[in-house]
Every structure is written in C-alpha cells, then in structure tokens.
What we know:
It comes from Paenirhodobacter hankyongi. By secondary structure, this protein is of the alpha/beta class. It has 14 helices and 22 strands.
Amino acid sequence: MQEYDVAIIGYGPAGATLAHLLAQCGLSVLVLERESAAYHLPRAVHFDAEVMRVFQWIGIAEKIEPLTALHPGMRFVSAEGDLLLDWPRPQGEGPQGWRANYRFHQPDLERILREDMAARPGVTVRTRCEAFFVEDQGERVEIRFEDMSRGKVEHVAAKYVVGCDGARSLVRRYIESGMEDYGFHERWLVVDVILNADKPELGDHSIQYCVPDRPATYVRCPGMRRRWEITVKPGEDSAEIARPERVWELLSDWLGPDEAVLERTAVYVFHSLVAEDWRKGRLLLAGDACHQTPPFMGQGMCAGTRDVANLYWKLALLCQGKVTGAAAEALLDTYESERKPNAREYIQTAVRLGGLINTAGTEAALRAALPSADGSARMESIAPPIGPGLGIGPKAGRLFGQPRLADGRRMDEVFRHQWVVVAEADLARGLALPPGVGLVTTETSNAAEHLARLGARATVLRPDRHTLGGADTPEALAALIAAILPNPIPLPEPEMV
Ligand SMILES: O=C(O)/C=C/c1cccc(O)c1
C-alpha cells in the first residue's frame, strides 16, 4: 500500500495551503478531493494580513495581490442611514508586512493555489476521489477512497490525516467530535452580482444594514463584483427567495436588473460552531471541519489558514522524526489548545456583531457588540492570542510582526519555516544559537518597533511567527532559546541579518 507522510482530505483553500506548506518542508502529501474542479463561484471574499503572510510563505502573495481590492473598512448603519459603528481599517503596509485587509475573488485564489501545486514536488492531488473510510492503526492511518472517474476503490496509508473537508467533514465523524454551539444559526440569502458599469455610489466600504425588518450586508468585491447578504425571515421559502425576480426586488434599494447580472444566488444557514475535539490520534481537523462562523467579520477562510499555519510545522517535525514519543503527542495536542480559543474568540465576536445587525443598533446591542466596550462607536480589528501550548510566560503566543531587513526584504523571505530570534542588538551580541535558527536584530532591521509592540527586548519566533515568549535579560533569552525545537527545514548555518 502506498504510504504518504500526510493525507489531506479536501482541496479548498485550507487543504491546498496546508499541502503547499508541508511539501515545502519536504513531506510527501496526498490530497483527496471529491469534486473534479475548484468551485467556480465566490464564497469567501475577505482575508487579512496574517493570511497574506501565509500566502507569502507559499509564494503566492504577489500573484493574488494584484487581483484584490482596497478595503477602507466596515460601517454599521441604521434603517434611517445613521452611522452606528465604524470599523475603519489601516491602509498601507502594516506590521505583518502586508495591508491589513484584502477583498478577493475566491476562484482566483483557488486557481493560483492549484496552478502552483503542479510545480510542487511531493504533492499528489487526486480529484474526483471521495474518501469514505479512515482507520487509525496506531503507527499509521489507512484511508479508503473511491476514484469516481474510474469507479475504483483504492487503499492508501499516511502517518497523519487532516480533514480539511468542510462543514460536513468525514474525518470529524471518525473523530466523533461534538460541537460547541454559540447560538447563531440563521438563513441568509447570498447574492453575488457583476455590475455592467461602475456604480461609485455603492462605495468601497462593507456596510451592515441594521434594519430590523430585513438586516443585510453589502460587500465591495474586486473589479465589478459586488455581494449582498440578506436575512431570510422565518417562514420564507428558501427556493422562492432565491428566484431572480425576488432577488431583484430585494436589491431594489441599491440597483436594478439593467445595471448588473446575477452571478450567484444561494440561501445559506450561517452557523456558529466549534468542534470539541480537533484531534484523535493521527486524525486532525482544520478549517470549516472544526469551526464555522457567521460571516460578519469575513473571517471564515482566515481561521482555516491560521489552523494550517499552526499545524504544518508540527506535523513536519513529527514526520521527520525530530520530535518523537510523548513529546510528539504533547506537541500535537498544542494544535487544539492553541487554535481553539483564538477561533472561538473570532466566532463569538462575529455572533455579537450579528446581534447588532439584527437588533437595529439599540444602545444595548451596540455595547454588547463592541469587542472593547469603551462606549465609542468605533471598533478595531481584534487579534486574540492563541491559547496555552508551547511557550514561556505572558508574552508567549502572540502573533509577531514581520520586520523589514536593512536590504528591504521581509524577514520571512530569508527565514522560511525557521525559528528566529529577534533581539535588541546588545542582547544579541555573542549569542550561541542552535543550528539553523535565524537572528534578526534592531541594528539590521526595523525590529525595534515590533519588539516595542510586544513589550520585550527580545523574543523567539516559531515557524508560524507566534512568540515563544518575551525576554528582557540574557538569562530569560537563553531560557527561550533552550526551548526551541528543531527546524522543519534545516539551514546549514544560522544567519545574522
Ligand atoms: O471586510 C470585512 O472585514 C468583512 C467582510 C465580510 C464579508 C462577507 C460577509 C460579511 O458580513 C462581511
């Protein structure tokens, strides 16, 4: 039986990104996907700087960036048109080395992910192949799937299986995970249109219409694409409301049938769920398989990308035999313990925003919706730390920025999949580093501003660019360095840049 390091079930953005990352670390990867081609219509329309940084690692950031749209922010307005809550987004390059937010067309992203996979050694992609059986046999997992193009059942094995197989995940059933329910389950009509000609009065902001009778969302997508999401009321028929005549009636406040074509109309139930168990033995979940969010923060695909960024290097260390035995189990356990609280925080905030949209912006709902309830009608993007796992002290588990090196390059371009020490120059002098660990100092980069944001004189960064901790003394820094695990991709010599 053919054996791979990792089998990924599901070839959406999370599965494809994970396959790229694992292959970059030298692992053999099988991707099984039931459909013959990527879904041709948009679903996710927004991602943030943290996600763009992951796209940078796999070499697609420069390809997707020209296809994205600028994103000034989101506004919540009342039925009377009053601004209830403003959520502006910083413009220009931010701490992650990229803009804070991007609007995109999901089929563009999937095309790029798949085109580049063709040139990625180590990845086998099997489309029209439906997995129907996985069995953790202790040392490996057996997977059975049907190749639907040939009507043939095949058996393969993998050291680990990751279910990136969406809300109805097969792998989640094998894990037998229940779901934590955050109480939001609503039907919304999603309408994607392509304008015939520009209509600047629609604006570039996302707008949440907090209209009690029919809450709705408008999102400006790249080019001539625009999206509306409109509440379906209890008792309304999903098929009836998705008919073109009815859709145009619902859109009539914004545009008419002579101004655009309908690209897609579909009724979705937006859920707020987190899987109780993200792992059982060698079976793991990522993306919608382990969390589903209402869309009001545009964070659905982002969460899946964060999952795979947290997971890939841990799987690489295990598959390469660099972490074994009880340490391997403990390392794999940190995937759920770190990721779940972060995913939960985004979902709970999205549910609160949904509450604001649905209750027409009453004072109480406005206060409840604000992540930091300071009374102002302005909110900022949240950046919840990951939960407890690897790391030392209160500065562990923060997403660190991406310093620009003196030659203008971004840090991760130089230290791909490496651990990196970032330190004030005087703390860095004479440091003895394990092989392959990078060193970035305040002398040769703009690390000072990133360290100031963390509130430490030095830090150690994991391959996913979360902090292992902060240090202000040589002793504290030495303790962090002692906790570094081997690199997923070994570098011959540590570099000081
Ligand atoms: O731009 C954002 O931050 C959010 C975008 C978005 C996308 C889809 C649906 C929504 O309610 C919001």
